[in-house]
Amino acid sequence: MREDLHVAVVGATGAVGIEMLKTLEKRNFPVNKLSPLASARSAGKTLSFRGEDVAVQELTRDSFDGVDIALFSAGGGISNEFAPTAVEAGAVVVDNSSAFRMDDSVPLVVPEINAADVAKHNGIIANPNCSTIVTVMALFPLHQAFGVKRIFASTYQAVSGSGAMGIAELERQVGEIAEGEPVSRKVYPHQIAFNVLPHVDEFLDNGYTKEEMKMVHESRKIMGLPDFLASVTCVRVPVYRAHSIAVSAEFEKPVSVEHAREVINAAPGIDLNDNVASNGYPLPLELAGQDNCQAGRIRVDCAMENGLSFWVAGDQILKGAALNTVQIAEEVANL
Questions:
Q1: How many domains does the chain have?
Q2: What is the greatest pairwise CA distance in the chain?
Protein backbone atom coordinates (compact mmCIF):
# COMPACT_ATOMS: atom_id res chain seq x y z
CA MET A 1 0.00 0.00 0.00
CA ARG A 2 1.20 3.50 -0.83
CA GLU A 3 2.26 5.54 2.17
CA ASP A 4 1.90 9.22 3.06
CA LEU A 5 -1.24 9.97 1.08
CA HIS A 6 -3.02 13.30 0.94
CA VAL A 7 -6.70 12.46 1.44
CA ALA A 8 -9.63 14.83 1.02
CA VAL A 9 -13.08 14.09 2.44
CA VAL A 10 -15.84 16.04 0.70
CA GLY A 11 -18.89 16.42 2.94
CA ALA A 12 -16.71 15.86 5.99
CA THR A 13 -19.21 17.31 8.48
CA GLY A 14 -22.09 15.07 7.40
CA ALA A 15 -22.98 11.76 9.06
CA VAL A 16 -21.18 9.67 6.44
CA GLY A 17 -18.24 12.07 6.23
CA ILE A 18 -17.68 11.83 9.98
CA GLU A 19 -17.85 8.03 9.74
CA MET A 20 -15.29 8.16 6.92
CA LEU A 21 -12.86 9.99 9.18
CA LYS A 22 -13.44 7.47 11.97
CA THR A 23 -12.99 4.58 9.54
CA LEU A 24 -9.77 6.01 8.07
CA GLU A 25 -8.43 6.26 11.61
CA LYS A 26 -9.71 2.86 12.74
CA ARG A 27 -8.23 1.06 9.73
CA ASN A 28 -4.95 2.95 10.00
CA PHE A 29 -5.22 4.24 6.45
CA PRO A 30 -1.92 5.91 5.45
CA VAL A 31 -3.08 9.52 5.66
CA ASN A 32 -0.16 11.92 5.70
CA LYS A 33 -2.33 14.99 5.14
CA LEU A 34 -6.09 15.30 5.62
CA SER A 35 -8.29 17.92 3.98
CA PRO A 36 -11.84 17.90 5.39
CA LEU A 37 -13.98 19.79 2.88
CA ALA A 38 -17.51 21.13 3.27
CA SER A 39 -19.69 24.12 2.45
CA ALA A 40 -18.75 27.68 3.37
CA ARG A 41 -21.20 27.38 6.27
CA SER A 42 -19.06 24.66 7.88
CA ALA A 43 -15.66 26.14 7.05
CA GLY A 44 -13.58 26.81 10.15
CA LYS A 45 -15.18 24.11 12.26
CA THR A 46 -12.82 21.47 13.60
CA LEU A 47 -13.07 17.69 13.40
CA SER A 48 -11.08 15.20 15.43
CA PHE A 49 -8.68 12.92 13.58
CA ARG A 50 -6.02 10.82 15.31
CA GLY A 51 -6.36 12.84 18.48
CA GLU A 52 -5.91 16.20 16.78
CA ASP A 53 -8.34 18.90 15.70
CA VAL A 54 -8.34 19.46 11.94
CA ALA A 55 -9.98 22.55 10.48
CA VAL A 56 -12.72 22.12 7.90
CA GLN A 57 -12.01 23.95 4.65
CA GLU A 58 -14.52 25.38 2.20
CA LEU A 59 -14.95 23.21 -0.90
CA THR A 60 -13.76 25.11 -3.97
CA ARG A 61 -12.28 24.22 -7.35
CA ASP A 62 -8.83 24.76 -5.87
CA SER A 63 -9.35 22.29 -3.01
CA PHE A 64 -7.71 19.31 -4.71
CA ASP A 65 -4.19 20.52 -5.43
CA GLY A 66 -1.85 17.75 -4.28
CA VAL A 67 -4.70 15.45 -3.21
CA ASP A 68 -4.11 11.75 -3.94
CA ILE A 69 -7.52 10.33 -3.02
CA ALA A 70 -10.77 12.26 -2.60
CA LEU A 71 -13.69 10.62 -0.80
CA PHE A 72 -16.98 12.26 -1.76
CA SER A 73 -20.16 12.11 0.31
CA ALA A 74 -21.99 15.37 -0.28
CA GLY A 75 -24.71 14.40 -2.76
CA GLY A 76 -24.89 13.91 -6.51
CA GLY A 77 -24.92 17.60 -7.38
CA ILE A 78 -21.64 18.26 -5.60
CA SER A 79 -20.10 15.11 -7.08
CA ASN A 80 -21.10 16.10 -10.61
CA GLU A 81 -19.66 19.56 -10.12
CA PHE A 82 -16.43 18.80 -8.28
CA ALA A 83 -15.39 15.20 -8.96
CA PRO A 84 -14.13 15.99 -12.50
CA THR A 85 -12.18 18.92 -11.03
CA ALA A 86 -10.55 16.61 -8.49
CA VAL A 87 -9.60 14.14 -11.23
CA GLU A 88 -8.12 16.93 -13.33
CA ALA A 89 -6.00 17.90 -10.32
CA GLY A 90 -4.63 14.36 -10.16
CA ALA A 91 -6.81 12.81 -7.46
CA VAL A 92 -8.65 9.50 -7.60
CA VAL A 93 -12.26 10.04 -6.56
CA VAL A 94 -14.28 7.49 -4.61
CA ASP A 95 -17.84 8.77 -4.82
CA ASN A 96 -20.63 7.81 -2.45
CA SER A 97 -23.45 9.44 -4.45
CA SER A 98 -25.51 8.06 -7.33
CA ALA A 99 -23.91 10.47 -9.80
CA PHE A 100 -21.61 7.99 -11.58
CA ARG A 101 -22.85 4.54 -10.54
CA MET A 102 -24.35 3.57 -13.87
CA ASP A 103 -21.68 5.23 -16.01
CA ASP A 104 -20.11 2.42 -18.06
CA SER A 105 -16.67 3.99 -17.65
CA VAL A 106 -16.90 4.08 -13.83
CA PRO A 107 -16.37 0.93 -11.74
CA LEU A 108 -19.09 0.24 -9.17
CA VAL A 109 -17.34 -1.63 -6.39
CA VAL A 110 -17.96 -3.73 -3.31
CA PRO A 111 -14.39 -4.87 -2.52
CA GLU A 112 -15.42 -8.30 -1.20
CA ILE A 113 -17.08 -8.93 -4.58
CA ASN A 114 -15.33 -7.10 -7.41
CA ALA A 115 -12.21 -5.42 -6.04
CA ALA A 116 -10.39 -6.11 -9.31
CA ASP A 117 -12.66 -3.58 -11.04
CA VAL A 118 -10.89 -0.77 -9.16
CA ALA A 119 -7.92 -1.12 -11.52
CA LYS A 120 -10.20 -0.20 -14.45
CA HIS A 121 -10.93 3.29 -13.18
CA ASN A 122 -10.40 6.48 -15.16
CA GLY A 123 -10.21 8.67 -12.08
CA ILE A 124 -13.61 7.95 -10.52
CA ILE A 125 -14.87 4.88 -8.66
CA ALA A 126 -18.46 4.68 -7.44
CA ASN A 127 -19.75 3.36 -4.14
CA PRO A 128 -23.08 1.50 -4.56
CA ASN A 129 -26.37 2.28 -2.86
CA CYS A 130 -26.46 1.21 0.78
CA SER A 131 -29.32 -1.30 0.56
CA THR A 132 -27.75 -2.80 -2.56
CA ILE A 133 -24.45 -3.33 -0.74
CA VAL A 134 -26.05 -5.04 2.24
CA THR A 135 -28.07 -7.31 -0.06
CA VAL A 136 -25.23 -8.42 -2.33
CA MET A 137 -22.95 -9.11 0.63
CA ALA A 138 -25.12 -12.19 1.23
CA LEU A 139 -26.39 -12.76 -2.30
CA PHE A 140 -23.07 -12.85 -4.15
CA PRO A 141 -21.44 -15.70 -2.22
CA LEU A 142 -24.67 -17.66 -2.66
CA HIS A 143 -24.54 -16.84 -6.36
CA GLN A 144 -21.01 -18.21 -6.54
CA ALA A 145 -22.28 -21.48 -5.08
CA PHE A 146 -25.63 -21.83 -6.81
CA GLY A 147 -25.88 -19.29 -9.68
CA VAL A 148 -28.55 -16.66 -8.96
CA LYS A 149 -31.28 -16.00 -11.53
CA ARG A 150 -33.66 -13.60 -9.79
CA ILE A 151 -34.75 -12.30 -6.42
CA PHE A 152 -37.83 -10.90 -4.75
CA ALA A 153 -36.81 -8.56 -1.94
CA SER A 154 -38.27 -6.17 0.60
CA THR A 155 -36.05 -3.73 2.44
CA TYR A 156 -36.51 -2.39 5.97
CA GLN A 157 -34.53 0.84 5.87
CA ALA A 158 -33.57 2.92 8.90
CA VAL A 159 -34.36 6.62 9.12
CA SER A 160 -30.65 7.47 9.21
CA GLY A 161 -30.72 6.61 5.51
CA SER A 162 -32.38 10.02 5.18
CA GLY A 163 -29.55 11.68 7.09
CA ALA A 164 -29.63 13.46 10.41
CA MET A 165 -33.02 14.95 9.53
CA GLY A 166 -34.56 11.48 9.39
CA ILE A 167 -33.29 10.64 12.87
CA ALA A 168 -34.52 13.97 14.21
CA GLU A 169 -37.96 13.39 12.67
CA LEU A 170 -38.38 10.03 14.39
CA GLU A 171 -37.14 11.36 17.73
CA ARG A 172 -39.40 14.40 17.53
CA GLN A 173 -42.49 12.41 16.59
CA VAL A 174 -41.97 9.87 19.37
CA GLY A 175 -41.74 12.76 21.83
CA GLU A 176 -44.84 14.44 20.41
CA ILE A 177 -46.85 11.22 20.67
CA ALA A 178 -45.64 10.64 24.24
CA GLU A 179 -46.73 14.15 25.20
CA GLY A 180 -50.08 13.85 23.43
CA GLU A 181 -49.17 16.60 20.98
CA PRO A 182 -49.99 16.76 17.25
CA VAL A 183 -47.43 14.89 15.15
CA SER A 184 -45.40 17.17 12.87
CA ARG A 185 -43.90 16.08 9.53
CA LYS A 186 -40.92 17.65 7.77
CA VAL A 187 -38.98 14.81 6.13
CA TYR A 188 -41.45 12.04 5.28
CA PRO A 189 -44.89 12.36 3.64
CA HIS A 190 -46.49 10.45 6.54
CA GLN A 191 -45.77 9.85 10.21
CA ILE A 192 -42.76 7.51 10.57
CA ALA A 193 -43.00 6.93 14.33
CA PHE A 194 -44.79 3.61 15.00
CA ASN A 195 -45.41 3.27 11.26
CA VAL A 196 -43.80 1.90 8.11
CA LEU A 197 -43.72 3.67 4.74
CA PRO A 198 -43.46 1.65 1.50
CA HIS A 199 -41.80 4.67 -0.07
CA VAL A 200 -38.04 5.29 -0.30
CA ASP A 201 -36.93 7.85 -2.91
CA GLU A 202 -39.04 9.11 -5.82
CA PHE A 203 -41.64 7.08 -7.70
CA LEU A 204 -40.98 6.28 -11.35
CA ASP A 205 -43.40 5.75 -14.23
CA ASN A 206 -43.18 1.95 -13.79
CA GLY A 207 -44.55 2.19 -10.24
CA TYR A 208 -41.23 1.37 -8.61
CA THR A 209 -39.09 3.94 -6.82
CA LYS A 210 -35.58 4.99 -7.79
CA GLU A 211 -34.28 3.16 -4.71
CA GLU A 212 -35.94 -0.06 -5.83
CA MET A 213 -34.54 0.14 -9.35
CA LYS A 214 -31.07 0.91 -8.00
CA MET A 215 -30.93 -2.58 -6.54
CA VAL A 216 -31.77 -4.07 -9.93
CA HIS A 217 -29.29 -2.12 -12.04
CA GLU A 218 -26.48 -1.82 -9.49
CA SER A 219 -26.57 -5.53 -8.57
CA ARG A 220 -26.21 -6.45 -12.23
CA LYS A 221 -23.15 -4.26 -12.56
CA ILE A 222 -21.48 -5.29 -9.29
CA MET A 223 -21.98 -9.02 -9.80
CA GLY A 224 -21.38 -8.92 -13.56
CA LEU A 225 -24.82 -10.40 -14.27
CA PRO A 226 -26.59 -8.45 -17.04
CA ASP A 227 -29.57 -10.84 -17.02
CA PHE A 228 -30.13 -10.74 -13.25
CA LEU A 229 -33.73 -9.94 -12.31
CA ALA A 230 -35.06 -8.35 -9.12
CA SER A 231 -38.46 -7.23 -7.93
CA VAL A 232 -37.92 -4.98 -4.91
CA THR A 233 -40.11 -3.06 -2.46
CA CYS A 234 -38.20 -0.54 -0.34
CA VAL A 235 -39.73 0.32 3.02
CA ARG A 236 -38.77 2.97 5.58
CA VAL A 237 -39.12 1.74 9.16
CA PRO A 238 -38.83 3.51 12.55
CA VAL A 239 -35.33 2.19 13.25
CA TYR A 240 -32.48 4.62 13.84
CA ARG A 241 -29.62 2.81 12.14
CA ALA A 242 -28.90 -0.32 10.04
CA HIS A 243 -30.90 -1.63 7.10
CA SER A 244 -32.44 -5.10 6.81
CA ILE A 245 -33.57 -6.95 3.70
CA ALA A 246 -35.80 -10.00 3.28
CA VAL A 247 -34.73 -11.87 0.14
CA SER A 248 -36.19 -14.80 -1.76
CA ALA A 249 -33.74 -15.91 -4.44
CA GLU A 250 -34.02 -18.42 -7.27
CA PHE A 251 -30.86 -20.21 -8.38
CA GLU A 252 -29.78 -22.31 -11.32
CA LYS A 253 -28.45 -25.20 -9.21
CA PRO A 254 -30.11 -27.22 -6.46
CA VAL A 255 -29.74 -25.59 -3.06
CA SER A 256 -29.50 -26.72 0.54
CA VAL A 257 -29.65 -24.80 3.78
CA GLU A 258 -26.53 -26.52 5.08
CA HIS A 259 -24.46 -25.56 2.04
CA ALA A 260 -25.84 -22.01 2.11
CA ARG A 261 -24.82 -21.63 5.74
CA GLU A 262 -21.33 -22.90 4.95
CA VAL A 263 -21.07 -20.41 2.09
CA ILE A 264 -22.11 -17.44 4.26
CA ASN A 265 -19.85 -18.57 7.07
CA ALA A 266 -16.83 -18.56 4.74
CA ALA A 267 -17.61 -15.28 2.96
CA PRO A 268 -15.68 -12.10 3.85
CA GLY A 269 -17.46 -9.18 5.45
CA ILE A 270 -20.57 -11.09 6.50
CA ASP A 271 -21.30 -13.29 9.50
CA LEU A 272 -23.79 -16.11 9.89
CA ASN A 273 -26.39 -15.55 12.62
CA ASP A 274 -28.87 -18.34 12.04
CA ASN A 275 -29.99 -20.22 15.13
CA VAL A 276 -33.74 -19.78 15.32
CA ALA A 277 -33.99 -22.32 18.15
CA SER A 278 -32.42 -19.69 20.42
CA ASN A 279 -33.93 -16.69 18.58
CA GLY A 280 -30.68 -16.04 16.76
CA TYR A 281 -31.01 -13.87 13.64
CA PRO A 282 -29.67 -10.50 12.47
CA LEU A 283 -31.07 -7.46 14.28
CA PRO A 284 -30.45 -3.86 13.18
CA LEU A 285 -30.24 -2.78 16.81
CA GLU A 286 -27.25 -5.06 17.31
CA LEU A 287 -25.61 -4.32 13.96
CA ALA A 288 -25.55 -0.54 14.33
CA GLY A 289 -21.89 0.44 14.54
CA GLN A 290 -20.64 -2.95 13.32
CA ASP A 291 -18.45 -3.35 10.21
CA ASN A 292 -19.73 -6.76 9.12
CA CYS A 293 -23.19 -7.57 7.83
CA GLN A 294 -25.09 -10.63 9.06
CA ALA A 295 -27.31 -13.19 7.36
CA GLY A 296 -29.82 -15.55 8.95
CA ARG A 297 -33.31 -17.08 8.69
CA ILE A 298 -31.88 -19.17 5.82
CA ARG A 299 -34.46 -21.64 4.54
CA VAL A 300 -35.50 -23.38 1.36
CA ASP A 301 -38.04 -21.19 -0.42
CA CYS A 302 -41.35 -23.00 -0.72
CA ALA A 303 -42.64 -21.05 -3.74
CA MET A 304 -39.89 -21.48 -6.32
CA GLU A 305 -37.58 -24.19 -7.59
CA ASN A 306 -33.99 -24.04 -6.34
CA GLY A 307 -34.98 -21.18 -4.06
CA LEU A 308 -33.57 -19.85 -0.81
CA SER A 309 -35.10 -17.25 1.48
CA PHE A 310 -32.93 -15.33 3.92
CA TRP A 311 -32.68 -12.18 6.02
CA VAL A 312 -29.62 -9.93 5.80
CA ALA A 313 -28.83 -6.78 7.77
CA GLY A 314 -26.00 -4.31 8.07
CA ASP A 315 -25.06 -0.80 9.13
CA GLN A 316 -25.83 1.29 6.07
CA ILE A 317 -23.67 4.19 7.28
CA LEU A 318 -20.65 1.89 7.65
CA LYS A 319 -20.67 -0.99 5.16
CA GLY A 320 -23.35 0.76 3.14
CA ALA A 321 -21.30 3.95 2.82
CA ALA A 322 -18.21 5.02 4.80
CA LEU A 323 -16.55 1.64 5.32
CA ASN A 324 -17.08 0.49 1.75
CA THR A 325 -15.69 3.80 0.50
CA VAL A 326 -12.54 3.47 2.61
CA GLN A 327 -12.13 -0.16 1.53
CA ILE A 328 -12.20 1.04 -2.09
CA ALA A 329 -9.60 3.67 -1.21
CA GLU A 330 -7.43 0.89 0.22
CA GLU A 331 -7.64 -0.92 -3.11
CA VAL A 332 -6.61 2.32 -4.87
CA ALA A 333 -3.64 2.71 -2.54
CA ASN A 334 -2.56 -0.83 -3.38
CA LEU A 335 -2.51 -0.27 -7.16
A1: 2
A2: 59
